[in-house]
Amino acid sequence: MSLLIRNGRVVTATDNYLADLYVENDKVSLIGNNLDVKADQEIDASNKLVIPGGVDPHTHMDMPFGGTTSADDFESGTRAAAFGGTTTIIDFAIQTKGDSTLEALDTWHGKAEGKASIDYGFHMIVTDMEDERLWELRRLADEGITSYKMFMAYPGVLYVDDGTLFRAMRKAGEDGTLVCMHAENGIVIDEIVKLALKEGKTSPKYHALTRPTRMEAEGVHRSIAIAEVAGVPVYIVHLSSSDALEQVTLARNRGTLVFAETCPQYLFLDISHYDQEEFEGAKYVMTPPLRERWNQDELWRGLRFGDLQSISTDHCPFCFKDQKTLGIDDFSKIPNGAPGVENRMSLVYNGGVAAGRISVNRFVELTSTAAAKLFGLFPRKGTIAVGSDADIVIFDPERRETISADNPCTHHMRVDYNAYEGIETQGFSETVISRGKVIVSDNEWHGRSGAGQFVKRALFSGPN
Ligand code: URP
Ligand code: ZN
Ligand code: ZN
């Protein structure tokens, strides 16, 4: 199979030029002007950007949470991701407390195999780590699971204490893997939640009011401090507030290897969304919660000047009618999470490039290259170069769409609402190519469940 993409503007994290791209089987094999080659399929990309497929390093497909399971599985979720221009996800396998992380990995392979239509990797959520189990982390790395997530939040569920954190971090340092942190002081937050419920404060907005930004900043500060003492780099996931970002900036300024991602929900939505009528605010119950609007400018500043490296989605959808209602009488029982995997690229292009906040190169870096580098996928993923996987998006920088659960061009996720309902975006992923095969064009699906491959990720290779 060969594919020729003619006349596009190739944009990577560093380049921006007009060229033709020739793809043979699953790899980019030639880049040049007026390529004199014959191909099985030819696409004219005049006036379009030709960018590396999005890499979303934070999704939760088929994830058990709060007595239910996230609404997208690997079939529906990766298909929706592809429609939005994302061609690789890194999802989270979860260790059952007391059980082997290797068993958890098998379980997650079982969830994804035969279903995913784009390539995928896994982080491992570590929920306990006794000394006698530490050897498993090296085995995971050999299997291509080169990063872990640990939680300072959700006591009694996913939470790990600081000792566990320190042990796992030291081992990650020995093995060359990367620790990702859900940084929020869950112990204090649980106390605040109990107080609120005692006072009869049960509606969704109290999810936000019981999780102050100071408790996120404290978690970020503490996880960085523990990582510094353990002598390892650390990656903060779903950073939501200026307060928390300040801790990352301080640490980076003193030369600490700290990396952080934020998510579209913290850039485009805010705490006022919890004031919607009746129970509608439950649609935005995610952790960390939406913040005061002014935080958004600070997050954009972090993205622009490099203290934030990546934009993931934390895609973790629960249906409003059947799942969010588990917490109709008690906000603490609303399953945490929101959809977004499909809308990330358009939202970030619109709010970033079209709004003049970041360059088109930085857009590619934030949505693809940085995550590929940090998580051991580069240069196979995250760029367009001879020899790289032909994961390519032909992106129309002018096309406008209004995001809606009712718009067949913006919503393929298996969830009954869209968190970005009504937002008009400029910039759209029109044709999506996964390892050399067109899987989306003209809003039609040409992909196949099961065609996505598990990608073994390399060890952490430092900041680059
Ligand atoms: O609300 C969220 N973020 N749900 C998914 C689990 C997590 O903490 O990432
Ligand atoms: Zn988290
Ligand atoms: Zn998450």
What's the quick description here?
A hairpin with a 2-residue loop joins strand 18 and strand 19 (444-445). The protein has helices spanning 74-83, 101-112, 135-142, 162-175, 186-198, 205-209, 213-230, 242-253, 264-268, 295-305, 344-354, 360-374; strands at residues 2-11, 16-24, 27-32, 41-44, 49-52, 54-59, 64-65, 68-69, 86-94, 119-125, 147-151, 178-182, 234-236, 258-262, 310-311, 392-402, 424-434, 437-441, 444-445.
List its salient traits.
single chain, 464 residues, alpha/beta, 9-stranded mixed beta sheet, 8-stranded parallel beta sheet, 19 strands, 29% helix, 23% strand, binds N-(aminocarbonyl)-beta-alanine, binds zinc ion
What does this structure look like?
Strands 1, 2, 3, 4, 5, 16, 17, 18 and 19 form a 9-stranded mixed sheet that branches. An 8-stranded parallel sheet has the order 6-9-10-11-12-13-14-15. Strands 7-8 form a two-stranded antiparallel ribbon. 29% of the residues lie in helices and 23% in strands. Helix 8 (242-253) runs parallel beside helix 10 (295-305). It is built from 12 helices and 19 strands. A hairpin with a 4-residue loop joins strand 1 and strand 2. The two termini are 34 Å apart. The model has no long low-confidence stretch (mean pLDDT 97). With 464 residues, it is α/β, with parallel strands linked by helices. The chain has helices at 74-83, 101-112, 135-142, 162-175, 186-198, 205-209, 213-230, 242-253, 264-268, 295-305, 344-354, 360-374, and strands at residues 2-11, 16-24, 27-32, 41-44, 49-52, 54-59, 64-65, 68-69, 86-94, 119-125, 147-151, 178-182, 234-236, 258-262, 310-311, 392-402, 424-434, 437-441, 444-445. The protein binds N-(aminocarbonyl)-beta-alanine (URP) and zinc ion (ZN) (2 copies).
